[in-house]
Write a structure and sequence with these properties.
This protein is an alpha+beta fold. It contains four helices and nine strands, in the order E-E-H-E-E-E-E-H-H-H-E-E-E. Helix 2 (about 75-90) packs antiparallel against helix 4 (about 120-150).
Length: about 190
């Protein structure tokens, strides 16, 4: 049972203190956290110019150590857009499009009465469609986050950790090992 000591503070016996610690507020979606390693260091990242994750006993800036718990986001449209842009870039599409646009604008300057716009290339239509899909996906992710805000985490929930300072997510690269502890996977920040 708790006992009073000098100065009016309450001291608890050991079992009562353990019980109180177990009753701490649970983690919820949208909570801000820091991650402390067993050896006393904090997981930290600068995040703006350098995306690497390090552990520091005393971080230079506390903001480098703060992460927000987020529900799992959807990335299928963003991934599809990224892959399509990579394909187009490999095929030199963006170089061709820029050249074609400059030729078309030069032709319009020479013959201004020719107001007929050339039809958009198929690739550009697909690109615009994928960009719209990605934009819609971002909006859905925001709405989902707001719906889940404040919900208590349960064992087995899949979450993502958002670095508060940079707005990037903590990411694990399963194909690369860490630089210092070679038995662990590489962890970094990604948009």
């Amino acid at each position: 049972a708790p006992t009073m000591s000098k100065g009016g503070t309450v001291e608890e016996d050991e079992p009562a203190q353990r019980e109180r610690e177990e009753e701490q507020d649970p983690l919820c979606i949208a909570d801000y956290i820091t991650i402390k390693t067993p050896n006393g260091g904090f997981m930290s990242a600068e995040g703006v110019l350098d995306d690497s994750i390090v552990t520091r006993r005393t971080p230079e800036l506390y903001d480098d150590c703060v992460f927000q718990i987020c529900p799992q986001q959807q990335y299928s449209a963003a991934k599809e857009l990224f892959e399509y842009k990579s394909e187009l870039q490999a095929d030199g599409f963006f170089d061709k499009t820029a050249d074609e646009q400059s030729v078309a604008s030069s032709a319009r300057m020479v013959n201004p009465e020719d107001e007929e716009e050339p039809e958009e290339p198929r690739e550009l239509k697909i690109l615009k469609s994928l960009e719209t899909g990605t934009s819609n996906e971002k909006e859905l992710n925001k709405k989902y986050f707001e719906q889940k805000r404040g919900i208590t985490l349960q064992f087995g929930n899949t979450v993502q950790l958002l670095h508060r300072k940079s707005g990037k997510y903590l990411t694990i690269n399963p194909k690369e090992v860490a630089t210092t502890e070679r038995e662990n996977l590489s962890v970094y920040l990604s948009p």
